Amino acid sequence: DLIVPCIDARRADVFAAAYRTEGRRLEAIIDPVATSAEVFSERLPSAPRRWFLGDGAAKLAEHIDPRDHDRTVDIRLDATAIGTIGYRMWKDGNRADLDSLEPTYLREFVAMKPIRSAFEKLPF
C-alpha cells in the first residue's frame, strides 16, 4: 500500500508526502513537499492501493488516472482522529521526545500588504 498524507496548501498547491507500508513501518517514498497537486500526482508511483489522507486529497484526485491502481481511498482526518491515534500510541507506551519536536516549513512565508478598503480611499 501507498499512504499519501496531503493538506490543501491553497493556490492549487498541496503539502504532501508518500510512504510505502512495510508491516507496521513506513518507508518514505516522497519526502514532504509543497508543490502543485498536478506535479505531485505525476511523481506518485502506482500501487495496488493508495490511501489519500487529508483535505488535499480532492486536489490530488483531479490529477490521478484511476487505471494506475486498483483502489484509491480518500480518508479525512480531523483533530478527533489524530487524538485517538495519539491516545492509542500513549496506551501502548510510545512516547514522543517533546523537547526535540520542531515544525517543518515547506514553503517560505510571503507577507502581503493588506488591501485597502473603499473607506480608506475616500478623501474625508
> If helices are DSSP runs of H or I spanning 4 or more residues, what is the number of helices?
4
Largest sheet: 5 strands, mixed
Radius of gyration, taken over Cα atoms and rounded to an integer in Å? 19 Å
Shape: extended
The percent of residues in helical segments reads 10-25%
In short:
The protein is α/β, with parallel strands linked by helices and 124 residues long. It has helices spanning 37-43, 57-61, 79-91, 118-121; strands at residues 2-8, 13-22, 25-36, 49-53, 71-75.
Features:
alpha/beta; 124 residues; 5 strands; 4 helices
Q: What is the topology?
A:
Elements: E1 2-8, E2 13-22, E3 25-36, H1 37-43, E4 49-53, H2 57-61, E5 71-75, H3 79-91, H4 118-121
Parallel strand pairs: 1-4, 4-5
Antiparallel strand pairs: 1-2, 2-3
Describe the structure.
The protein has 124 residues and is an alpha/beta fold. The chain is built from 4 helices and 5 strands; from the N terminus they run βββαβαβαα. The chain has helices spanning 37-43, 57-61, 79-91, 118-121; strands at residues 2-8, 13-22, 25-36, 49-53, 71-75. It has a 5-stranded mixed β-sheet with strand order 3-2-1-4-5. It is extended. The termini are far apart. The model has no long low-confidence stretch (mean pLDDT 82).
